[in-house]
Amino acid sequence: MSPDTNSAILRLQGVSKQYRDGPTALHSVDLDIRRGEIFALLGPNGAGKTTLISIVCGIVTASAGTILVDGHDAQADYKAARRRIGLVPQELATDAFETVLATVSFSRRLFGRAADPAYVERLLRDLSLWEKRSAKIKDLSGGMKRRVLIAKALAHEPELLFLDEPSAGVDVALRRDMWTLVRSLRDRGVTIILTTHYIEEAEEMADRVGVIARGRLLLVEDKAALMRKLGKRELDLTLVEPLGQVPVELAEWSPTLEHDGHVLRYVFNATDEHTGIPGFLRRVGDLGLHFKDLETAKSSLEDIFVDLVERER
């Protein structure tokens, strides 16, 4: 089957994983990844993120379903499919006694790519590894080892790059460097799929977001549309005099008291036609509750993620 440049670069249909005498790790996942996008897969530990990546990369065998990578069946045409994929795993395991340059160059040859010293040099420079090219992996810091894993994954110039918890255990500087690198890769046409516990990572970079919990893909949505659809807003009234409890007359709006009674908070859905704010403020005034400041704030992607996962429980 030849690749169709107009199709999704990755298509999963009914992909499931049932371990013998064990739990179902994935429940019939359907997912299309658009060519050239950054897709963030969010989920708590044990949600199925790594299992899904491992199946696409051929590390784990699916119990059911089909996987097409750039039009190539990942089972019937494994080599062609795998050649298009780069994987940066969570673990830092690599060839400890090899040099950085040898490790990355070998990864390129492993996928049948002809030697290209200029490309490898550019890659190592992009990852701030060129000065360490002769160093043995065992002598590198954890952050540098993480950079080597990224270089190995990119050595054969894949079209689809998986980053499995790329920021786990790395410092803020490296995390920012990786974000810059990921954006530059996307600009070159590489499709990025990342799993992360750092919600800020998805909020910062992703074009679309998928949320997975207990092996079920709960939703896939453009990030901006998701935040418009599910995002809540908070209206905070900073009171002149603190309250000991919420007046019963405000029960209709279910506000809460924050900051030792100094802030009265009303949470509402910004997409609702009637937010309830006018009535809430009117009742606050009728009760003689004076406030010196009024502030609204959007919910973050983290708030949305937590809310979705809690619903699944």
If you had to describe this structure to a student in words, what would you say it looks like?
Residues 10-239 form the ABC transporter domain. This is ABC-2 type transport system ATP-binding protein. Pfam families: ABC_tran (PF00005). Keywords: ATP-binding, Nucleotide-binding, Transport. With 313 residues, the chain is an alpha/beta fold. The protein contains 10 helices and 14 strands. The protein is 32% helix and 27% strand. Helix 3 packs parallel to helix 5.
Set down the secondary structure blueprint.
Elements: E1 10-18, E2 24-33, E3 38-42, H1 49-56, E4 64-69, E5 72-73, H2 78-83, E6 85-88, H3 100-110, H4 117-126, H5 142-154, E7 160-164, H6 172-187, E8 191-196, H7 199-205, E9 208-213, E10 216-222, H8 223-230, E11 232-239, E12 256-258, E13 263-269, H9 277-286, E14 291-298, H10 301-312
Parallel strand pairs: 3-8, 3-9, 6-7, 7-8
Antiparallel strand pairs: 1-2, 1-4, 4-5, 9-10, 11-13, 11-14, 12-13
Question: What would CATH call the architecture of the largest domain?
Answer: 3-Layer(aba) Sandwich
In one word, what is the shape? elongated
Largest sheet: 6 strands, mixed
The N- to C-terminal Cα distance equals 41 Å
Oligomerization state = single chain
The total strand number stands at 14
Q: What's the arrangement of strands in the largest beta sheet?
A: 6-7-8-3-9-10
Counted up, domains total: 2
What structural category characterises the helix and strand content? alpha/beta
Strand proportion, as a percent range, falls in: 25-35%
H/E element string? EEEHEEHEHHHEHEHEEHEEEHEH
Low-pLDDT parts are 1-6
- CATH class bucket of the largest domain: Alpha Beta
CATH fold assignment of the largest domain: Rossmann fold
Number of helices: 10
Pfam family, one: ABC_tran
InterPro entries: AAA+_ATPase, ABC_transporter-like_ATP-bd, ABC_transporter-like_CS, ABC_transporter_ATP-binding, P-loop_NTPase
Organism: Sphingomonas abaci
GO molecular function: ATP binding; ATP hydrolysis activity
